[in-house]
Amino acid sequence: MAQNGSIRSRCRPNILVTGTPGTGKTTTSSALAEATHLRHLNVGDLVREKNLHDGWDPELESYLINEDLVCDELEDLMEEGGNIVDYLGCDFFPERWFDRVVVLQTDNTVLYDRLSRRGYTGSKLSNNIECEIFQVLLQEAKESYPEDIVVALKSDTIEDITRNVTSLTDWARSWHPAS
After folding, report:
1. pTM for this entry
2. What is the CATH number of the domain that holds 77?
3. Is 166 annotated as a binding residue?
4. Has residue 19 been placed in a domain?
Protein backbone atom coordinates (compact mmCIF):
# COMPACT_ATOMS: atom_id res chain seq x y z
CA MET A 1 0.00 0.00 0.00
CA ALA A 2 1.19 3.48 -0.78
CA GLN A 3 1.46 6.16 1.89
CA ASN A 4 -1.86 7.66 0.89
CA GLY A 5 -3.73 4.37 1.05
CA SER A 6 -4.02 3.66 -2.67
CA ILE A 7 -2.49 0.67 -4.40
CA ARG A 8 -0.11 1.78 -7.12
CA SER A 9 -0.06 -0.16 -10.34
CA ARG A 10 2.09 2.28 -12.28
CA CYS A 11 5.74 1.63 -12.95
CA ARG A 12 6.91 5.23 -13.29
CA PRO A 13 6.37 8.13 -10.89
CA ASN A 14 4.18 11.18 -11.25
CA ILE A 15 5.66 14.52 -10.25
CA LEU A 16 3.80 17.78 -9.70
CA VAL A 17 5.80 20.97 -10.27
CA THR A 18 3.97 23.96 -8.81
CA GLY A 19 4.76 27.52 -7.76
CA THR A 20 3.84 31.13 -8.31
CA PRO A 21 3.90 32.30 -11.95
CA GLY A 22 7.49 33.12 -12.92
CA THR A 23 9.20 30.62 -10.62
CA GLY A 24 10.36 28.39 -13.49
CA LYS A 25 7.75 25.62 -13.54
CA THR A 26 7.69 25.13 -17.30
CA THR A 27 11.45 25.53 -17.72
CA THR A 28 12.10 23.02 -14.94
CA SER A 29 9.39 20.61 -16.12
CA SER A 30 10.62 20.67 -19.72
CA ALA A 31 14.24 20.02 -18.71
CA LEU A 32 13.15 17.30 -16.28
CA ALA A 33 11.02 15.61 -18.96
CA GLU A 34 13.99 15.62 -21.31
CA ALA A 35 16.30 14.16 -18.65
CA THR A 36 13.88 11.48 -17.39
CA HIS A 37 11.78 10.73 -20.49
CA LEU A 38 8.66 11.38 -18.41
CA ARG A 39 5.70 13.09 -20.11
CA HIS A 40 5.43 16.87 -19.50
CA LEU A 41 1.82 17.96 -19.00
CA ASN A 42 1.45 21.74 -18.93
CA VAL A 43 -2.02 22.21 -17.42
CA GLY A 44 -2.31 25.83 -18.60
CA ASP A 45 -1.75 24.74 -22.20
CA LEU A 46 -4.15 21.83 -21.79
CA VAL A 47 -6.85 24.17 -20.43
CA ARG A 48 -6.51 26.43 -23.49
CA GLU A 49 -6.18 23.65 -26.09
CA LYS A 50 -9.07 21.52 -24.83
CA ASN A 51 -11.32 24.31 -23.48
CA LEU A 52 -11.19 22.98 -19.93
CA HIS A 53 -12.36 26.29 -18.52
CA ASP A 54 -15.47 28.28 -17.70
CA GLY A 55 -14.48 31.44 -19.57
CA TRP A 56 -12.02 34.28 -19.22
CA ASP A 57 -11.50 36.47 -16.15
CA PRO A 58 -10.57 39.93 -17.48
CA GLU A 59 -9.45 41.15 -14.05
CA LEU A 60 -7.00 38.27 -13.53
CA GLU A 61 -6.27 38.06 -17.26
CA SER A 62 -6.59 34.28 -17.19
CA TYR A 63 -8.99 31.45 -17.87
CA LEU A 64 -11.30 30.25 -15.11
CA ILE A 65 -10.07 26.67 -14.96
CA ASN A 66 -12.71 23.96 -14.60
CA GLU A 67 -10.95 21.67 -12.13
CA ASP A 68 -13.33 18.76 -12.72
CA LEU A 69 -12.75 18.84 -16.48
CA VAL A 70 -8.97 19.00 -15.95
CA CYS A 71 -9.00 16.02 -13.59
CA ASP A 72 -11.22 14.04 -15.96
CA GLU A 73 -8.85 14.83 -18.83
CA LEU A 74 -5.76 13.73 -16.87
CA GLU A 75 -7.14 10.71 -14.99
CA ASP A 76 -6.03 7.93 -17.37
CA LEU A 77 -2.58 9.43 -17.94
CA MET A 78 -2.02 9.85 -14.22
CA GLU A 79 -3.04 6.26 -13.46
CA GLU A 80 -0.59 5.11 -16.14
CA GLY A 81 2.26 7.06 -14.47
CA GLY A 82 5.35 8.70 -15.88
CA ASN A 83 4.06 12.29 -15.82
CA ILE A 84 5.36 15.69 -14.83
CA VAL A 85 2.38 17.96 -14.21
CA ASP A 86 3.20 21.66 -14.46
CA TYR A 87 0.62 23.98 -12.88
CA LEU A 88 0.44 26.95 -10.53
CA GLY A 89 -2.06 25.31 -8.18
CA CYS A 90 -2.25 21.91 -6.59
CA ASP A 91 -5.08 21.53 -4.10
CA PHE A 92 -7.64 20.12 -6.54
CA PHE A 93 -5.57 17.24 -7.90
CA PRO A 94 -6.22 13.86 -6.23
CA GLU A 95 -3.61 13.03 -3.62
CA ARG A 96 -3.14 9.53 -5.09
CA TRP A 97 -1.78 10.94 -8.33
CA PHE A 98 1.60 12.19 -7.10
CA ASP A 99 4.75 10.62 -5.74
CA ARG A 100 6.63 13.94 -5.45
CA VAL A 101 5.25 17.48 -5.20
CA VAL A 102 7.81 20.18 -6.02
CA VAL A 103 7.12 23.78 -5.02
CA LEU A 104 9.46 26.18 -6.80
CA GLN A 105 10.29 29.35 -4.91
CA THR A 106 11.93 32.51 -6.18
CA ASP A 107 13.33 35.56 -4.40
CA ASN A 108 10.80 38.39 -4.64
CA THR A 109 13.09 40.83 -6.43
CA VAL A 110 13.95 38.19 -9.06
CA LEU A 111 10.27 37.25 -9.37
CA TYR A 112 9.19 40.89 -9.69
CA ASP A 113 11.59 41.38 -12.60
CA ARG A 114 10.48 38.15 -14.32
CA LEU A 115 6.79 38.99 -14.02
CA SER A 116 7.32 42.59 -15.11
CA ARG A 117 9.12 41.35 -18.24
CA ARG A 118 6.06 39.16 -18.92
CA GLY A 119 3.88 42.26 -18.85
CA TYR A 120 2.33 41.71 -15.41
CA THR A 121 1.20 45.01 -13.90
CA GLY A 122 -1.08 46.30 -11.16
CA SER A 123 -3.00 43.80 -9.06
CA LYS A 124 -1.89 40.83 -11.19
CA LEU A 125 1.73 41.64 -10.37
CA SER A 126 1.19 42.48 -6.71
CA ASN A 127 -1.07 39.46 -6.07
CA ASN A 128 1.56 37.08 -7.42
CA ILE A 129 4.36 38.71 -5.43
CA GLU A 130 2.24 38.50 -2.27
CA CYS A 131 1.49 34.84 -3.02
CA GLU A 132 5.24 34.18 -3.07
CA ILE A 133 5.97 36.28 0.03
CA PHE A 134 3.39 34.41 2.08
CA GLN A 135 4.39 31.01 0.63
CA VAL A 136 0.76 30.33 -0.31
CA LEU A 137 1.57 27.48 -2.72
CA LEU A 138 3.95 25.74 -0.32
CA GLN A 139 1.26 25.85 2.36
CA GLU A 140 -1.35 24.58 -0.12
CA ALA A 141 0.92 21.67 -1.09
CA LYS A 142 1.61 20.75 2.55
CA GLU A 143 -2.12 20.79 3.31
CA SER A 144 -3.01 18.73 0.21
CA TYR A 145 -0.35 16.00 0.17
CA PRO A 146 1.67 13.93 2.64
CA GLU A 147 4.38 16.24 3.89
CA ASP A 148 7.14 13.73 3.12
CA ILE A 149 6.49 13.96 -0.63
CA VAL A 150 6.45 17.80 -0.70
CA VAL A 151 9.75 19.54 -1.41
CA ALA A 152 10.42 23.28 -1.77
CA LEU A 153 13.24 24.15 -4.18
CA LYS A 154 14.92 27.50 -4.76
CA SER A 155 14.55 28.65 -8.37
CA ASP A 156 16.31 32.01 -8.73
CA THR A 157 18.94 31.19 -11.34
CA ILE A 158 19.74 28.84 -14.22
CA GLU A 159 22.17 27.11 -11.83
CA ASP A 160 19.30 26.52 -9.37
CA ILE A 161 17.15 25.05 -12.13
CA THR A 162 19.99 22.80 -13.30
CA ARG A 163 20.61 21.60 -9.72
CA ASN A 164 16.86 21.00 -9.22
CA VAL A 165 16.57 19.01 -12.46
CA THR A 166 19.59 16.88 -11.49
CA SER A 167 18.18 16.22 -8.03
CA LEU A 168 14.72 15.35 -9.34
CA THR A 169 16.18 13.16 -12.10
CA ASP A 170 18.15 11.21 -9.48
CA TRP A 171 14.97 10.86 -7.39
CA ALA A 172 12.91 9.68 -10.40
CA ARG A 173 15.52 7.11 -11.40
CA SER A 174 15.60 5.64 -7.89
CA TRP A 175 11.80 5.67 -7.46
CA HIS A 176 10.06 2.35 -6.97
CA PRO A 177 6.32 1.89 -6.63
CA ALA A 178 5.15 1.14 -3.12
CA SER A 179 4.17 -2.47 -2.69
Report:
1. 0.94
2. 3.40.50.300
3. no
4. yes
